[in-house]
Amino acid sequence: MTQDRITVEATAPAPLDVVWKAYTSPDQITQWNFASDDWHCPTASVDLREGGTFTSRMEAKDGSMGFDFEGTYTRIIPNARIEYAFGDRHAVVEFTPAGDQTGLKVSFDPETQFPIEQQRSGWAAILDNFCKHVARR
User: 3: pLDDT confidence band, cut at 50, 70 and 90?
Assistant: First the structure.
């Protein structure tokens, strides 16, 4: 892909072990993996190992639309980094501990169907929702 990667960042208000578990546990992924309150994530699965797969279902709460997000883990460094392929695209998630907070940086190859800014804002909204989720824990 010739486009540069899109990067979104956030600081989660929780220590690394809590953030890692929330990011990689299907029962928690279903609680945060959506960009707005009119969407939800009814199912998720994680086989957290190199070569393992993940899936999550994102749906509008009114049932008007939905899609599956799925991929294969290509590199796992526990409590530090997750790399995965989804279709012909790749993403990297980096976890940086900072005391009782954790920095998150997600970089991914853009798609061609939606504008770059729409992709950036959508992924940033999901990351923001993730931070709100760990703050409640």
Answer: low
Residue 32's φ and ψ, nearest 5 degrees, are -135, -15
| pLDDT tens digits along 85-109 | 999 999 999 999 999 999 999 999 9
Q: Which CATH class is domain 6-136?
A: alpha beta
Tell me the domain boundaries of the chain: 6-136
pLDDT for the residue 1: 42
pTM above 0.85, yes or no: yes
Q: Which of 116, 57, 114, 46 is nearest to 82 (CA)?
A: 46
